[in-house]
Amino acid sequence: MPRFAYSGRDRTGQSVTAELEAPSRRDALRVLAARGVQARTVEELGSGQAFARRPAETRTARTLTRRECLPFLEALYDLVHSGLSAGEAVRLLSVRIQEPRLRRLSGQLWERISEGAPLSRAMAASPEVFEPSVTNLIQAGEATGSLNDTLARLISHLTEQRELRRQLLAALAYPAFMVVVAGGVIVFFLVFLLPRLKTLLTSLGGKMPASTSLLIGLSEFLLSPWGIGLVVAAVAGFSSFLGWRRTAAGRAATDAWLLRLPLTGPFVVAQTVLAFAQTLSVLLENGITAAEALRMTEKQIGNTVHRSAFQAAIARVLEGEALSTALGRTGCFPALVLDRLAVGENTGNVVPSLKQIAAAYQKRISGQLNVFTKVIASGVLMAVFVFVGFIAFAIVSAVFQVSSSFKLGG
Predict the structure, then answer these.
(1) Using H for helix, E for strand and C for coil, what is the string for the chain?
(2) CA-to-CA distance for 283 and 122, rounded, in angstroms?
(3) What is the C-alpha separation between 394 and 381, in angstroms, rounded?
(4) Which residues neighbour 154 within 8 Å (Cβ) at sequence distance 6 or greater?
(5) What are phi and psi of 401, to 5 degrees?
(6) Domain residues of the chain, as ranges?
(7) N or C end: fewer C-beta atoms under 10 angstroms in the chain?
(8) What is the pTM of this model?
(9) Which of 148-151's residues contact partners 24+ apart within 8 Å by CB, and which partners?
(10) pLDDT at residue number 240
(11) What's the rounded Cα separation, in Å, for the pair 295 and 272?
(12) Residue 186: is its pLDDT beyond 50?
């Protein structure tokens, strides 16, 4: 029979660490509960597997992603808000919810909860779904008895983040579509139509204008080994750049470049301010300590240059410096943001100040995305119109040139 090592507290509150034999981990937990032992960890000897994570769970959880986090929390909130306990709500979700991935996630969580784990520890065993900031907020809600309010704030925060991502993707979708369509049309004309047009014009005789000769030369170059090699080299170079971008040095360098560009620089700054204000306000509002909240907020900052500067600011805050002063030394945050934060610190209303900053920058990012979309779309359309106009001019010029040669010959 398997042996299990466990640690916990007995009925008198004394810490105990011992071993016992049981057919399974669940049976071991039942035995400990009958003895009045509140188990903290239960591990099968020789298995190397901890209580919160089983081999089968590891294999299954690989198919789950962060996409399941918000839908699960929304479903959990509906049941908890109706008066069910968190454990009973998870159990009900594991048998009633229709979506297969959410049902699998709920089943995993219920199995851990039924073995004695609180909701936060059960969620922490699935880091591929729940970020540490989410599980820490749930743990704080359990400790303060305000799980319902914590879930509501957390859902609101995650919903805002999801909407921002959707807005960003929607803003980039139209310019990307225009670039792909315009590029496809141009390549189709240069590679397929223009060679046939060249054959027709050559058969008619006459000297072609310079614009037509330029287009034909460009088409011939694209179809030559040099042109094909250039395209292959461009694709390979772009792939190499993306690979370099994924490295630590590449990410740091490209993030620094983005900050220097006219359009992307202000947008990256706005994203940093929004992530900082949104995340820190939610964490502080739910009882997370300032030091832990700042460390969690740092992980939400996407730009590595800003993240490094924020790390230095956290170190100064832990040494006793005011948050607004420490952030001012980074040079990453606008002066108005620092002023609002300083007012909140002086009046003891940091969380309301952070919420105001987040609301203001949510609107600012929406406006920047609209401007970005219009600029890119207008630029692509202008380039396409210019090129199509040049093609039309070249073809019409060639037709007139050939017609003139016929008249002169007649």
Answers:
(1) CCEEEEEEECCCCCEEEEEEECCCHHHHHHHHHHCCCEEEEEEECCCCCCCCCCHHHHHHHCCCCHHHHHHHHHHHHHHHHCCCCHHHHHHHHHHHCCCHHHHHHHHHHHHHHHCCCCHHHHHHCCCCCCCHHHHHHHHHHHHHCCHHHHHHHHHHHHHHHHHHHHHHHHHHHHHHHHHHHHHHHHHHHHHHHHHHHHHHHHHHCCCCCHHHHHHHHHHHHHHCHHHHHHHHHHHHHHHHHHHHHCCHHHHHHHHHHHHHCCCHHHHHHHHHHHHHHHHHHHHHHCCCCHHHHHHHHHHCCCCHHHHHHHHHHHHHHHCCCCHHHHHHHHCCCCHHHHHHHHHHHHHCCHHHHHHHHHHHHHHHHHHHHHHHHHHHHHHHHHHHHHHHHHHHHHHHHHHHHHHHHHHHHC
(2) 20
(3) 20
(4) 73, 134, 137, 138, 282, 286
(5) -65, -45
(6) 3-44, 55-130, 164-410
(7) C
(8) 0.66
(9) 148/77, 148/80, 148/81, 149/286, 150/286, 151/73, 151/76, 151/77, 151/80, 151/81
(10) 92
(11) 15
(12) yes
**Has residue 281 got a pLDDT over 80?**
yes
Q: Provide the CA 330 distance to its chain's centre, in angstroms.
A: 24
Q: What string of DSSP letters covers 149-165?
A: HHHHHHHHHHHHHHHHH
Query: For residue 250, what are the contacts with CB-CB under 8 A and spacing of at least 6?
Result: 243, 244
Residue type, 391: I
Here the tokens at position 170 are 């929607």
- Note the residue count of the chain: 410
- For residue range 130-139, what is the model confidence (pLDDT) as tens digits? 888 888 888 8
- Which among 328, 329, 331, 348 is positioned nearest to 339, based on CA atoms? 328
Question: What letter would DSSP give residue 24?
Answer: S
- In tens, the pLDDT along 96-113 reads 888 888 888 998 898 888
- Coil, strand, or helix at residue 320? coil
DSSP state of 2: -
Residue 149: per-residue pLDDT: 85
Looking at domain 164-410, its CATH class is: mainly alpha
* Spatial separation of the C-alpha atoms in residues 95 and 92, rounded to whole Å: 6
Residue whose structure tokens are 């008895």: 145
Contact 342, 358 (CB under 8 A): no
